[in-house]
What we know:
This protein is an alpha/beta fold. The chain is built from 13 helices and twelve strands. It is globular and about 60 Å long.
Amino acid sequence: MTKQYYTIGTMSGSSLDGLDIAYCKIKVSETYQYEILAAQTIPYSDELKQFLKDISADITKDYKTQSAFFDAQCAQMINTFVTENGINHIDFISAHGHTIYHYPENKITCQIGDGIATAKELHCPVIINFRKADIEAGGQGAPLVPIADKLFFADYDACLNIGGICNISYEKDNKRIGYDISAANQLLNYNANLLNLEYDDEGNIAKGGKVHNDLLNALNSDSFFEKMPPKSLDNNAIKNTMVPLFNKWQITIPDALATATEHIALQIANCLNQIIQKNKITKQNFKLLVTGGGAFNTFLINRIENLSGVKIQLPNKALIQFKEALAMCLMGVLKWENKSNFLTSVTGANIAVSGGEIVNLHE
């Protein structure tokens, strides 16, 4: 029996560029199929962006006020998206929220956005707090996307997402492996912001800079790279340990961007070469799906290709921009059907959980 769901997925990433919203049709039978019917990134207001920048990670706080405020802002953005796209049927909304801290080693994670304002505004159930159940089961609670990679994109040898943090997933011995690789757009955007730019368009500023070897070695020496998967990277670790390295040497911003780009490309290339070696695939036949905002950084993509020897063919723009929001739709469908939406082979959890909490104000 085939079922189909019309659902909205939302994602708020560490790059703070806005709320990614995707309205998707998910068909469920013996296989899973998707169609992105409409998608849009609605930029954050200056007030909301500053609000998210100013929130400090404090495990003793409950963040109820912040959670309600963020959800109310998201509700307005989703309502605008629904109105502008003439959407008249939504089975439910899957909202990632915005991560404040993520400490899986202590079995705690916090994503603000309580779903209440969104459920009221859109008159449909909202699924939130996806990571918590996997964390409580001993898992990393991240990355989230590999379940979509397994069910939607299994014909690729690996799926790479380059967002604020870059992560990868691939199949090994009939198990999906996935983990965070390194900081990505967070490092690039930090330096671009110093020039009053949101980002370095296509990596053009980085392309004109020179790699600073001492900084590059310092970035590559972070203890995170010594850990074996499963592993996930916390935004605060990037802010507190990696970002300050850019102030240690007096270098130009183009040189800082060139060095950050080289660091990211090196870490990704090392990862790709390990996968190719483990799975005994030739580089010429290696099929890599690359998505996330970093896919639009032409200089970064070229450096990954040069360092790894893998030719990258980018998918359509909608998939590049909205794959994470699509993955949220799928995770919501699996939660709705009470099926596991986390993979223990990815997160290291003791059991495969059906993560998420359903906010339904009409029950």
